[in-house]
Design brief:
40% of the residues lie in helices and 20% in strands. α1 links the parallel β1 and β2. α2 runs parallel beside α3, α6 packs across α7 and α6 crosses α8. By secondary structure, the chain is α/β, with parallel strands linked by helices. The chain folds into two domains: 121 residues, Response regulator (Rossmann fold); 97 residues, Orthogonal Bundle (Arc Repressor Mutant, subunit A), CATH 1.10.10.10. It binds calcium ion.
Length: 230
């Protein structure tokens, strides 16, 4: 899975430049053009890094940063503030609001990429060795391998992303629409019942004859990862 960078910036030309350079370097990019939109998106998805402009319409970059730090969902996401201001006082204010790094415009694409990678290394030093587990299921993110009770599970790419999303949010109930947005992405149009098809495939791959189904169907709501099936 590609690391995702969220660009929060109202200058279209800069967004285009940032997106181009990040995508060229293998990042997935999502964008918000004002502070309010950024906060809405951050409630639903978890980027690996947020590039946050200081001067934004509706909600200022500083305020967005404070809110990112207050929310349990986004608290640990690294933030790089972007600004045209070069004053020391602003830099201190930016870092005090919870930003991890600070870049003054204009900056070169290579500096940007280096900063993004550095901030990711600092906050996730062992990303390559990461594994997600729930009950007897484990996912090795580096090797892209899934196992249950020590037995290898073979999943298609969508089932893999779906399971990864569940493993990252154990116990939480997600609607089909939320799963579509988080696993398939905002820009893809897929019918909600497509989710059911992939859930079925995921269950078939995961559940051995004597094993409980760890994906719970929540009637008229959606699905959750849950091993307490009374
Ligand atoms: Ca701006």
């Amino acid at each position: 899975m590609k690391p995702m960078v969220m660009i929060v910036e109202d200058e279209t030309a800069l967004v285009t430049m940032l997106r181009y350079n990040l995508e060229k370097e293998g990042f997935e990019v999502c964008e918000a053009n004002d502070g309010e939109e950024a906060l809405v998106q951050l409630a639903e998805r978890k980027p690996d890094v947020v590039l946050l402009d200081w001067m934004l319409p509706l909600v200022s970059g500083i305020e967005v940063c404070r809110q990112i730090r207050r929310s349990p969902v986004s608290r640990t996401v690294p933030v790089i503030m972007l600004t045209a201001r070069g004053e020391e006082a602003d830099k201190v204010r930016g870092l005090n609001s919870g930003a991890d790094d600070y870049m003054t415009k204009p900056f070169s694409p290579s500096e940007l990429i280096a900063r993004v990678r550095a901030v990711m290394r600092r906050t996730k030093p062992d990303a390559s060795a990461e594994a997600l587990t729930f009950a007897d299921v484990s996912m090795d993110l580096a090797a892209h391998r899934v196992s249950r009770n020590g037995r290898a599970i073979h999943l298609g790419p969508t089932e893999y992303r779906l399971l990864r999303f569940f493993l990252e949010h154990p116990g939480r109930v997600f609607t089909r629409e939320q799963l579509l947005d988080s696993v398939w992405g905002h820009d893809v149009y897929v019918e909600p019942r497509t989710v059911d098809v992939h859930i079925r495939r995921l269950r078939k791959a995961l559940n051995g004859p004597d094993e409980i189904d760890i994906i719970r169907t929540v009637r008229s709501a959606g699905y959750a990862l849950d091993d307490d099936q009374q």
